[in-house]
Specification:
about 80 residues, Alpha-Beta Plaits, four-stranded antiparallel β-sheet, ACT_dom, ACT domain-containing protein
């Protein structure tokens, strides 16, 4: 499970739990000048399925979201703005 506050802008990713996922997504956002204000990850089991919640200060461009979706271990994701 992941605890998040449903306010502002949020990216939710369902993914395979593997090393480097936080860094990969964080690097994509940083390279596009999107500031992360929080990140939380919950998983079912080590190396199993995981959910990553990322709060952002800036709205990611379609290109940025497309790059996140191209990360092989990410099964699906959604961008939400509250």
């Amino acid at each position: 499970s992941v605890d998040v506050s449903l306010e502002g802008s949020l990216i939710l990713c369902r993914q395979v739990d593997q090393p480097g996922m936080i860094g990969k997504v964080g690097s994509i956002l940083g390279s596009q000048n999107v500031n992360v204000n929080f990140m939380s990850v919950g998983r079912t089991a080590p190396r199993g399925r995981a959910i990553m919640a990322i709060g952002v200060d800036d709205e990611p461009t379609k290109e940025t979201l497309q790059r996140i979706g191209e990360v092989p271990a990410i099964e699906e994701f959604v961008y939400l703005k509250f």
